[in-house]
Specification:
Helix content is 53%, strand content 14%. It has eight helices and five strands; from the N terminus they run H-H-H-H-E-H-E-H-E-H-E-H-E. A five-stranded parallel β-sheet has the order 3-2-1-4-5, with helices on one face. The longest helix is centred in the first third of the chain and has 26 residues. It is elongated. The relative contact order is 0.11. The mean pLDDT is 82.
């Protein structure tokens, strides 16, 4: 805005100093500056009205598999999470929702422990990788290719809701966290 106003002031000054001797050139220059300003304001308004979506990892699924989950860091991450959740894992059959399950490592672990698991993700590629892993291991889960906000309307309350490494990728993180947390049974867990 300041640049466009500045350009108009320069044009006006040149006109006053007789560097622009045609008033039509002055008016055209100011009109062009005004048009640029109007376009800028229009773009700002349109951008501010855009609905921002949760981040979809389809384009990064292969990279995540190799550079995060296929590394020592990824192994340690899973090992530490399992240590933290082993007291839940060792309970009798639980209903578990892995929201934003990604490649499904935690969901797979719980299914192998005899628990009922619902998995969702908005990434088709991540869900495919999770389903392939489940198939290789001879187990299954309930699958939704949908955002957590939508899945929450389709499932009952759960004994455990897993919501790992998701919140930072959401368009409305606190609103979604409230929705996800509302699906935890009384006495249940949110991880």
């Amino acid at each position: 805005l300041n640049a466009i106003v500045g350009l108009s002031e320069i044009l006006l000054k040149r006109f006053e100093d007789n560097q622009i001797n045609d008033s039509h050139k002055l008016i055209d220059g100011i009109k062009q500056s005004s048009d640029r300003l109007l376009n800028l304001i229009t773009n700002i308004i349109q951008y501010s009205q855009l609905e921002v979506d949760d981040y979809n990892f389809d384009i990064l699924a292969d990279k995540f598999e190799k550079s995060i989950y296929g590394t020592l860091k990824g192994e340690w991450r899973l090992k530490l999470l399992k240590e933290d959740l082993v007291h839940i894992y060792n309970q009798d059959r639980l209903d578990i929702w892995d929201s934003g399950c990604g490649m499904g490592q935690m969901a797979l672990w719980f299914v192998q422990g005899g628990h009922n698991v619902v998995c969702n993700d908005i990434s088709y590629k991540m869900l495919q990788k999770a389903k392939e892993s489940f198939e290789v291991n001879g187990v299954d889960a309930t699958w939704y290719k949908a955002p957590a906000q939508e899945v929450a309307n389709k499932i009952d309350k759960q004994d455990l809701v897993i919501f790992h490494a998701v919140i930072e990728w959401l368009a409305k993180p606190l609103d979604t966290l409230d929705i996800v947390a509302s699906k935890v049974k009384d006495g249940g867990y949110l991880s």
